[in-house]
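<purpose> Linking amino acid order to shape
<body> The protein record starts here
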Amino acid sequence: MRTNMDFSPFYRSSIGFDRIFNLLENASHPQNGDGWPPYDIAKLGEDSYRIVVAVAGFGEDELSITHEPNLLVINGAKTENDDVQYLHHGLALRPFTRRFELADHVSVTGAKLENGLLVIDLQKEIPEEMKPRRIAINAGPGKKPNSKRIEGNVAA
């Protein structure tokens, strides 16, 4: 039993969170039903991550990694060899596409293929202008801050 949540009340009272609501809506739709190829996501440090995808049997020229804004797409397509006649074909070397939603300011720092595992390193780098900063409060030129009393009855 699947129920879709209506996010329209949140759109009325929030600004700039459209991407979050889109992610929540898309999370209910599975990418591919079989979950192939298997993968791991690991957090290596405060701002560094690693995705490891099991791609045994695929070569570097048969894999492609595309980094779009807030999206990492991994494609694999095995080239067909028509000269081989299989008596048993049990290896799962079918084409695949695996998508990963990325947070803002996450970039791919490297990718390598070793021992049948595709290892992709990610780093979150927040720009200096996006980091929190302290704002000074100025009372204005030549004015000293003073407190004002609001007129009204004072409770005894």
